[in-house]
Write a structure and sequence with these properties.
The protein contains eleven helices and no strands. By secondary structure, it is an all-alpha fold. The protein folds into two domains: 132 residues, no CATH class; 124 residues, no CATH class. Helix 2 crosses helix 5 and helix 8 runs antiparallel to helix 9. The termini are far apart.
Amino acid sequence: MMPSIVYLEIAIVVVYFTWIWFLSVFKKDVSIVDIAWGIGFLLLALLHFLLQPPTLRGTVVLLLTSIWAVRLSGHIYLRHRGKPEDARYRKWREEGGSSWWWQSYFRVFLLQAAILWIVARPLAVSISAASTAWQLWDSLAVLLWAIGFGFELIGDCQLVRFLKQPDRPPFLRTGLWRYTRHPNYFGEAVLWWGFGLFAVSVGEVWALVSPILITVLLRFFSGVPLLETSMMKKEGYADYCKTTNAFFPWFPKHRSI
């Protein structure tokens, strides 16, 4: 990949997240960065798609990126609409005090921009690859992406339906949530391993750093541990944790009560 294109990628990502930061300062709501996350990947995918003649692989990767990005950003927007700032960012805002408005630019927005650029490597190399022949790796990539997207979509839909129940229990433990405490996070990781296989198909194995990074972040940092800090306060959740895997789906250790 030419250095000039890399610089253009970085410029687009920084300008995009700077614009989102300006909006967050105006709205006093850093949560909008989560809505912007998926669309940022779509911008980079479009950039590479438009810079060269389209290939079958590039078209498929752009299509899959579009489906994932629009679905994710739309879901987060609907979930957040009309609600106050997410508790994670609200805590940081309280800790940052009057200087949080500029701290958030570096602590949240530029950090997210850097992570997005790294995670997007499979999209960049697979769309811009000169090789046009469809490989077995490409077919496996589509299959893996579909499995991950299915877990993410179904898990989110089950959670939305659960939250609409007036007399619901403290937490969801049916459907996919019976086999993993975070089917949406698991699906997100699997989906990115699918994107990673597109990079493998064009000989860019190093781009697997993307699914490795997103899996580690979701499982050990920004995903499971962060959410479960608050979930542990709910009655019965500790017992749920003893019977159900945190990330990888598997049968419960004993029948749920």
